[in-house]
């Protein structure tokens, strides 16, 4: 019996060893893969254990953090949620993050190495600092002017500082309150489902994630290409363009809505928005020249980040001449984000030099000390300085004597370009109304703001839609706000 | 050999009783528990819990009373048993209190404290009233009858979480199957002690297995089959596995026939395969064991076992610290079946190893008492009780760490569960009793607390005598 008891005891010892070996396997050798399993909520809990850093507009935080006392302790709150939703995006415990909340997540949640006092050590220990803050370039008054100008109509508005590329306003309309997505539970899932199902697509960031045919607003790009390529040497000289214009290689005629486009000069074609002249100039510049010119403004760049990713604006690289002609007036497959068109205006305003658009001014730590500052980088040389000066004059003429008179501001030099973009099957959709512009205070040497506005107003009567009528007043309000704030 | 003949001992002979050691170990156990309780409070709210003194005083008082009972009624008992039980019970209370903080609607620590008090009361009662474990031998058949009644009664009560193993009366509920463990161990020990020679040396021999006659083997196999059958009906698979293991170990120890182990393993494998394949409840648990992350891949979220593995992984080597883990994510049964996950997460592999070693020490001390005893019933009882603890710890710890399929069972002393705590205290009381007998010096014996087994009173080793009868 003694021997059997000893053997039974040895058996129990074997069981103990099996338990210990297995525990060591899980707790030491498989621990990291188990920790990183997406279904393991521990990382999420740690993430929400501390307050998230804030996103600031000027000195004012537009976000906040609320301790709910639940398992995922801190929920995101938003001040003026719908106004800044296209800037901040959402930070949802259920659906993750978007836009700035996403692009600067590591700063806001405190894991960014710039926040750690000892960055290398911080990377190794994966330690979490108090959340840092993201100070945006947005100016509250400009943002509000754009938001109120759109007044809930579908569309977008972007304002840039041409000299730095700082984004002063980024509005998409209609908007939504990201706070509805902050927490967990049925109210959040319900809001998510409702926002996604809404026909107006409030969560779509139309300013940077939606592309539209730019229509006549694109003529600025074509004009820059023609001047830079030497196709036009004197903007006031007559061109040999008939009206209507027969698209090369086809029997299709391109009409003008404006009068006086027959053999009109480039300046006149910009002022009253002649299709025929600009289409013809595009063909004269040629596909390669047009492609290169559009590219210098940022078309076909799918890597642009502000720091959220910006959708690629398109100018086709393989077209026949008739397609090139249509593309040169912003139709056919040419599409652009509102940000892209604001960059076009900005390049003209800044003497041909295009600064990289950016939304983040600086990153500060929890105590407000700046730990990283965004530079004002050159993005591209969009055109010759002389070309830019000529285009500025032509755009001023649009506002003073042409299609864009409703953007005029007393005592301020304003340049603009309207666009009314056809779209839909056989162009049956209600056109998109575009306006791109810039404004320069009399006292200052350089334009202070460049703006692009697009309104896709399905409710409006088709014939009433025009860039000058629908979009220009919004652009004027935005420019006034920008100039007012500068004083 | 018996307590009455001990009077003949020369009075000048002083033997070590180790009661002082027990008292200091008990003090240590209470201090560690209070420290854990304080650590939880500091981690969770930055303050010492207001009732920490009450908790410490309560645990200390219970320990002191239990110690006094042992000191005066079982002076030669193993000094490790009681401190280990107090430490495990205290740690269990800390873990349950800690999990209570996460589940405000489901408070269990106070109830557990009441049951622990009741358990210690039973412990004292057993130590005081049971002067000699051999008395139990007389009640073998009463034990088994009571055990069967206790196991059958829950069938008439509604199922809780799929298992009909509870009796609910008033606000209380308890698992009679827990008590049945002890009663069955007593019966097995008594029956096997009485019939072990017949079991070992009579009957026909088939190949290497000496098959006892049906008259001898029949009753015990019948009892075992009824027990396991009832448990399967009640879907208490953990306990049926436990009874099976207990039966095989005790049969092996009683008869010395290795063949029984082989038969037992074969039967267990076959039974497990059949039940695992055809019983849907068990089948799903086997599936879950084979692939704990299947539900995650299916988009249904982590299973309890996956959550448990996450908890153990989060603990790593040193743990997150008491109160700082998230084992509450396991949800249902985090305080009972899965309480070890909290220990694993917050105390780490280091703490978990310590807990395992405490159990191992408890089991080893039980076996040691069995070795030192000279009456076959006492030996079998000690081995049986120690094996109950060992198997139970293995089945539940192996289950929650993914070593074997999960079966619902309570981690002795740690887990929330009144009947379990009370039962385990009675087991420790019985081990105290047998160890006291085992270590009480016999007349004429040399000083020393290790008592060498006395072979001449034992059965001849069947291996050496080639199966000859006595």
TrEMBL record, chain A:
<dbReference type="InterPro" id="IPR001460">
    <property type="entry name" value="PCN-bd_Tpept"/>
</dbReference>
<dbReference type="InterPro" id="IPR012338">
    <property type="entry name" value="Beta-lactam/transpept-like"/>
</dbReference>
<dbReference type="InterPro" id="IPR050515">
    <property type="entry name" value="Beta-lactam/transpept"/>
</dbReference>
<feature type="signal peptide">
    <location>
        <begin position="1"/>
        <end position="23"/>
    </location>
</feature>
<protein>
    <submittedName>
        <fullName>Penicillin-binding protein 2</fullName>
    </submittedName>
</protein>
<dbReference type="Pfam" id="PF21922">
    <property type="entry name" value="PBP_dimer_2"/>
</dbReference>
<dbReference type="GO" id="GO:0008658">
    <property type="term" value="F:penicillin binding"/>
</dbReference>
<feature type="domain" description="Penicillin binding protein A dimerisation">
    <location>
        <begin position="52"/>
        <end position="134"/>
    </location>
</feature>
<dbReference type="GO" id="GO:0071972">
    <property type="term" value="F:peptidoglycan L,D-transpeptidase activity"/>
</dbReference>
<dbReference type="InterPro" id="IPR054120">
    <property type="entry name" value="PBPA_dimer"/>
</dbReference>
<feature type="domain" description="Penicillin-binding protein transpeptidase">
    <location>
        <begin position="155"/>
        <end position="480"/>
    </location>
</feature>
<dbReference type="GO" id="GO:0005886">
    <property type="term" value="C:plasma membrane"/>
</dbReference>
<dbReference type="Pfam" id="PF00905">
    <property type="entry name" value="Transpeptidase"/>
</dbReference>
<dbReference type="GO" id="GO:0071555">
    <property type="term" value="P:cell wall organization"/>
</dbReference>
<keyword id="KW-0732">Signal</keyword>
Automatic annotation (TrEMBL), chain B:
<keyword id="KW-0812">Transmembrane</keyword>
<feature type="transmembrane region" description="Helical">
    <location>
        <begin position="380"/>
        <end position="404"/>
    </location>
</feature>
<dbReference type="GO" id="GO:0015648">
    <property type="term" value="F:lipid-linked peptidoglycan transporter activity"/>
</dbReference>
<dbReference type="Pfam" id="PF01098">
    <property type="entry name" value="FTSW_RODA_SPOVE"/>
</dbReference>
<keyword id="KW-1133">Transmembrane helix</keyword>
<feature type="transmembrane region" description="Helical">
    <location>
        <begin position="260"/>
        <end position="278"/>
    </location>
</feature>
<feature type="transmembrane region" description="Helical">
    <location>
        <begin position="109"/>
        <end position="130"/>
    </location>
</feature>
<feature type="transmembrane region" description="Helical">
    <location>
        <begin position="216"/>
        <end position="233"/>
    </location>
</feature>
<dbReference type="InterPro" id="IPR001182">
    <property type="entry name" value="FtsW/RodA"/>
</dbReference>
<feature type="transmembrane region" description="Helical">
    <location>
        <begin position="347"/>
        <end position="368"/>
    </location>
</feature>
<dbReference type="GO" id="GO:0008360">
    <property type="term" value="P:regulation of cell shape"/>
</dbReference>
<protein>
    <submittedName>
        <fullName>FtsW/RodA/SpoVE family cell cycle protein</fullName>
    </submittedName>
</protein>
<keyword id="KW-0472">Membrane</keyword>
<dbReference type="GO" id="GO:0032153">
    <property type="term" value="C:cell division site"/>
</dbReference>
<dbReference type="GO" id="GO:0051301">
    <property type="term" value="P:cell division"/>
</dbReference>
<dbReference type="GO" id="GO:0005886">
    <property type="term" value="C:plasma membrane"/>
</dbReference>
<feature type="transmembrane region" description="Helical">
    <location>
        <begin position="179"/>
        <end position="195"/>
    </location>
</feature>
<feature type="transmembrane region" description="Helical">
    <location>
        <begin position="410"/>
        <end position="432"/>
    </location>
</feature>
<feature type="transmembrane region" description="Helical">
    <location>
        <begin position="139"/>
        <end position="159"/>
    </location>
</feature>
<feature type="transmembrane region" description="Helical">
    <location>
        <begin position="79"/>
        <end position="97"/>
    </location>
</feature>
<keyword id="KW-0133">Cell shape</keyword>
<feature type="transmembrane region" description="Helical">
    <location>
        <begin position="52"/>
        <end position="72"/>
    </location>
</feature>
């Amino acid at each position: 019996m003694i021997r059997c008891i000893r053997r039974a005891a040895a058996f129990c010892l074997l069981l103990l060893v099996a338990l210990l070996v297995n525990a060591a396997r899980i707790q030491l050798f498989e621990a990291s893969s188990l920790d990183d399993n997406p279904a393991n909520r521990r990382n999420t809990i740690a993430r929400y254990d501390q307050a998230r850093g804030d996103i600031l507009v000027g000195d004012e935080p537009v976000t906040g953090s609320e301790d709910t006392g639940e398992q995922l302790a801190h929920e995101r709150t938003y001040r003026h949620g719908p106004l800044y939703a296209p800037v901040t995006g959402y930070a949802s415990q259920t659906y993750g993050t978007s836009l700035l909340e996403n692009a600067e997540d590591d700063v806001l949640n405190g894991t960014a190495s710039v926040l750690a006092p000892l960055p290398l050590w911080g990377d190794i220990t994966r330690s979490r600092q108090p959340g840092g803050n993201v100070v945006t370039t947005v100016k509250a008054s400009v943002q509000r002017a754009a938001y109120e100008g759109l007044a809930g109509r579908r569309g977008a508005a972007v304002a840039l500082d041409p000299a730095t590329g700082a984004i002063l306003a980024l509005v998409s309309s209609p908007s939504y309150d990201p706070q509805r997505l902050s927490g967990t539970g049925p109210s959040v899932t319900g809001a998510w489902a409702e926002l996604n199902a809404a026909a107006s697509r409030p969560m779509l960031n139309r300013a940077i994630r939606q592309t539209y045919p730019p229509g006549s607003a694109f003529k600025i790009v074509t004009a820059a290409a023609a001047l830079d390529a030497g196709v036009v040497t004197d903007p006031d000289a007559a061109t040999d363009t008939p009206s209507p214009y027969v698209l090369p290689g086809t029997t299709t005629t391109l009409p003008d809505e404006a009068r006086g486009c027959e053999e009109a000069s480039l300046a006149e074609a910009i002022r009253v928005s002649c299709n025929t002249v600009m289409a013809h100039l595009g063909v004269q510049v040629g596909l390669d020249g047009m492609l290169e010119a559009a590219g210098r403004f940022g078309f076909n760049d799918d890597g642009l980040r502000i720091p959220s990713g910006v959708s690629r604006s398109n100018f086709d690289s393989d077209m026949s001449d008739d397609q090139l002609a249509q593309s040169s007036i912003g139709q056919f497959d040419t599409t652009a984000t509102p940000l892209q068109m604001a960059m076009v205006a900005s390049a003209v305003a800044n003497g041909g030099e295009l600064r990289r658009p950016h939304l983040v001014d600086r990153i500060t730590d929890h105590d407000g000390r700046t730990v990283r500052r965004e530079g004002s980088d050159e993005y591209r040389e969009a055109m010759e300085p002389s070309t830019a000066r000529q285009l500025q004059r032509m755009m001023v003429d649009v506002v003073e004597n042409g299609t864009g008179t409703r953007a005029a501001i007393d005592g301020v030099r304003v340049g603009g370009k309207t666009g009314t973009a056809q779209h839909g099957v056989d162009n049956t959709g209600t056109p998109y109304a575009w306006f791109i512009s810039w404004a320069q205070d009399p006292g200052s040497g350089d334009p202070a703001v460049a703006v692009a506005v697009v309104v896709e107003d399905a409710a409006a009567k088709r014939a009433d839609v025009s860039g000058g009528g629908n979009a220009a007043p919004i652009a004027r309000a935005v420019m006034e706000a920008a100039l007012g704030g500068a004083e | 050999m018996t307590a009455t003949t001990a009077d003949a001992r020369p009075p000048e002979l002083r033997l070590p009783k180790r009661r002082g050691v027990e008292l200091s170990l008990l003090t240590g156990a209470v201090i560690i528990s209070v420290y854990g309780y304080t650590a939880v409070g500091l981690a969770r709210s930055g303050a010492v819990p207001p009732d920490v003194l009450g908790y410490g005083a309560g645990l200390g008082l219970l320990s002191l009373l239990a110690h006094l009972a042992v000191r005066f009624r079982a002076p030669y008992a193993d000094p490790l048993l009681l401190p280990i039980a107090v430490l495990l019970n205290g740690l269990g209370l800390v873990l349950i209190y800690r999990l209570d903080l996460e589940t405000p609607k489901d408070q269990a620590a106070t109830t557990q404290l009441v049951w622990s008090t009741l358990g210690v009361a039973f412990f004292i009662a057993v130590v005081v009233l049971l002067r000699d474990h051999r008395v139990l031998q007389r009640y073998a058949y009463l034990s088994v009858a009571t055990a069967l009644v206790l196991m059958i009664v829950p069938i008439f009560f509604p199922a809780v979480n799929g298992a009909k193993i509870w009796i609910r009366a008033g606000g209380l509920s308890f698992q009679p199957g827990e008590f049945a463990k002890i009663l069955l161990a007593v019966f097995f020990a008594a029956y096997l002690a009485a019939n072990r020679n017949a079991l070992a040396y009579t009957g026909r021999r088939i190949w290497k297995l000496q098959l006892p006659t049906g008259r001898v083997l029949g009753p015990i196999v019948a009892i075992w089959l009824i027990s396991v059958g009832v448990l399967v009906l009640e879907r208490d698979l953990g306990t049926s596995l436990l009874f099976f293991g207990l039966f095989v170990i005790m049969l092996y120890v009683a008869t010395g026939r290795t063949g029984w182990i082989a038969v037992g393993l074969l039967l267990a494998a076959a039974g497990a395969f059949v039940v695992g394949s055809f019983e849907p409840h068990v089948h799903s648990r086997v599936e879950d064991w084979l692939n704990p992350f299947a539900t995650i891949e299916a988009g249904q979220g982590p299973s309890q076992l996956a959550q448990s593995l996450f908890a153990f992984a989060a603990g790593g080597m040193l743990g997150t610290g008491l109160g700082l883990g998230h084992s509450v994510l396991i949800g249902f049964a985090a305080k009972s079946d899965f309480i070890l996950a909290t220990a694993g997460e917050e105390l780490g592999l280091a703490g978990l190893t310590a807990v395992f070693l405490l159990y191992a020490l408890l089991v080893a001390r039980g076996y040691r008492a069995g070795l030192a005893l000279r009456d076959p019933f006492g030996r079998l009882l000690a081995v049986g009780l120690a094996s109950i603890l060992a198997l139970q710890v293995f089945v539940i710890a192996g289950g929650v760490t993914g070593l074997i399929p999960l079966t619902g069972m309570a981690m002795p002393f740690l887990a929330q569960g009144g009947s379990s705590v009370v039962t385990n205290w009675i087991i420790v009381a019985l081990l105290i009793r047998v160890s006291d007998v085992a270590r009480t010096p016999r007349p004429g014996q040399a000083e020393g607390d290790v008592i060498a087994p006395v072979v001449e009173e034992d059965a001849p080793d069947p291996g050496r005598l080639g199966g000859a009868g006595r």
